[in-house]
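Write out a record, focusing on structure:
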Amino acid sequence: MKGARTTGTASEKLWMEMDRLVSDSQPGRGGFGDQDSFGKREMLFMNLLKGAYDNDLELIVACTYDTQASTPGRLMAKQGFLEVDGMRFLVCFTSEKRAREAKYNTDWNIMKARDVMNNMFNKKAIWGLVFNPNDKRMVIVLKDLLSLIMPGEKPKPEMFRE
């Protein structure tokens, strides 16, 4: 689903800021691409994610659709993940454009940041989030680091499954 929204929503402003951070990370542009600022982009990203969680904003996520859902005529989306050396990362995108152009074998959808992150925090097999996989400027956010700036209980999402 490519959800219909109004232009200029808080979620779209979040995506623009995330995409700006990714775009500024190109090597040789004096942005976040140099080694001295390697962790700065990731910290800014984590702060944006905390704000998205606190303000109930939306993220653009990779997903696959289960046509065998329990409710006839209804598709159930399952968030896509990337596995590296036995570590799973939930896949997200910093913009609809990047989601459309992704060389990743899934569709995409828009989901509440709280649901995505609560899902991540409640699954031991998930190590974090990866934004724009297969892009040289992808961003990896580790769950353990994100939990340092987001302490407290994270309730299981309504549709939670181990």
